[in-house]
Amino acid sequence: MSSTATSSPKTFRVKSFGCQMNVYDGERMAELLAAEGMSAAGDGDDADLVVLNTCHIREKATEKVYSDIGRLRREDGSAPMIAVAGCVAQAEGEEIMTRAPSVKVVVGPQSYHRLPEMVAEAASGKRATETDMPAEAKFAALPKRRKSAPTAFLTVQEGCDKFCTYCVVPYTRGAEISRPFADLIEEAKLLVAGGAREITLLGQNVNAWTGEDDKGRSIGLDGLARALAADPDLKRIRYTTSHPNDMTDGLIAAHAELEKLMPFLHLPVQAGSDRVLKAMNRSHTADSYLKVLDRIRAARPDIALSGDFIVGFPGETDAEFEETLRLVDAVGYAQAFSFKYSARPGTPAATMPDHVPAAVMDERLQRLQAALNRDQLAFNQGSVGKTCEVLVERKGKHPGQWLGKSPWLQSVHFVGEAEIGQMVTVKLVEAGPNSLAGQLV
Ligand code: SAM
Ligand code: SF4
Q1: 243 in ligand 1 pocket by Cβ < 6 Å?
Q2: Residue nearest to ligand 2 atom 1, measured at CA
Q3: At what angle are helices 318-331 and 286-299 packed, to 10 degrees?
Q4: Which residue has the CA at smallest separation from atom 5 of ligand 2?
Q5: pLDDT tens track of the chain, all 441 residues?
Q6: Is the CB of 19 under 6 A from ligand 1?
Q7: Helix H segments across 304-357?
Q8: Cα separation of 271 and 295, whole Å?
Q9: Which of 339, 355, 369 should be mutated for ligand 1, with most atoms under 8 A from CB?
Q10: With helix as H, strand as E and coil as C, how does 192-260 read?
């Protein structure tokens, strides 16, 4: 494929959509481009290169990419160089190249280390596509990390072998791989040296991470968290997203032992009906999920729980949906994400019978979200009166106001003397649905 040559881009913008792993990938792409001498375009400035780092997880993902491409056209009819990255690129790269001539680069999530050379190819007039899946080559080829916000993401595991019947991730992100221990320790050290005080370990199935430590011992995610916790300048460790079947005794015990491992667990369940869970190929039941939560609560009684839910999976009846509401009542989530089922082409669920009408899904989602919002507010109200540490992330809207997170991942605002990256002790004095007010102690 070829098109006319354009000049090499000097400025870029990376727009990431979807999950936190995409946010991580977007940061790494920005670092790669900066290492090539390009600079990030300022807010509102025109960029010579725009990378759309896409998400394919839910409905209309592809249409959204085409409309984003259309919106990048400038008033004079010209357009920046457009690169489409992420899971839509992986799944629909060829089609994008055919339908959108303004796209010059298509790069999948496992090959974005090649982005600079692909941009150079595109500047010389040759459109470039790369959707191979050599995941480990990518990490080795990325530049070293230099700067970090107080909270940083670190991808430790990629891909998924679970094949839930609704999900595209095993097809777009490939087979499960764990990055090597030594590489992760090194990247974490650089993040901390660059300013990170909290690291969130990321993976589609982060708690399936395995590796060998520096003494050659086989370890799981708890072993990695223990090793990271030894760095005195790293104050907090989080991880997401976990699968209920991979919550090992070791990881649960780490929540009791490791002060730096924050009392928060995002553990998606998706539905409360065992028949639906089986049709989803989740390989856990509602009861086995609740038992995992009992174990984690025994280890860390103040743990804040979070989850993901899908309403309207094909064939889900009203009674089965009620089971989801009952599970929500039983757990009392501190926060959660909930979605209407959307058929993803190529997944087994897409061809299952009895798709649930949109109006029914809407109604179920509203009821589920009302229950989840009620519990989130109750959790926040239950925190009022507690004194806790807050990691200061940024300034607030009002003079002297600062924003940060509690150990339970709640947003906390307070007024007083502080600086970004500092851990301050705060008494929580007032709760809203999405944040809490604190007073410096
Ligand atoms: N690996 C994680 C897990 O097992 O939960 C994250 C997968 S996905 C990036 C995040 C969430 O998107 C899933 O937990 C699920 O609730 C939702 N999701 C995935 N596929 C979906 C679909 N086809 N329709 C609606 N929601 C979907
Ligand atoms: Fe998708 Fe299931 Fe894998 Fe999560 S565990 S990424 S929902 S297939």
Answers
A1: yes
A2: 167
A3: 10
A4: 162
A5: 334 556 799 999 999 998 899 999 999 999 999 999 999 998 778 999 999 999 988 777 788 889 999 999 888 888 899 999 999 999 889 999 999 999 999 999 989 999 999 999 999 999 999 988 765 678 888 888 888 899 999 999 999 999 999 999 999 888 999 999 999 999 999 999 999 999 999 999 999 999 999 999 999 999 999 999 999 999 999 999 999 999 999 999 999 999 999 999 999 999 999 999 999 999 999 999 999 999 999 999 999 999 999 999 999 999 999 999 999 999 999 999 999 999 998 999 999 999 999 999 999 999 999 999 999 999 999 999 999 999 999 999 999 999 999 999 999 999 999 999 999 999 999 999 999 999 999
A6: yes
A7: 318-331
A8: 20
A9: 339
A10: HHCCCCEEEEECCCHHHCEEECCCCCEEEHHHHHHHHHCCCCCCEEEEECCCHHHCCHHHHHHHHHCCC
Ligand closest to CA 344: 1
Q: What distance in angstroms lies between residue 276's CA and the mean position of ligand 2's atoms?
A: 15
pTM for this predicted structure:
0.93
Given the CA of residue 204, which atom of ligand 2 is nearest to it?
6
Query: Is the minimum distance from the CB of 268 to ligand 1 under 6 angstroms?
Result: yes
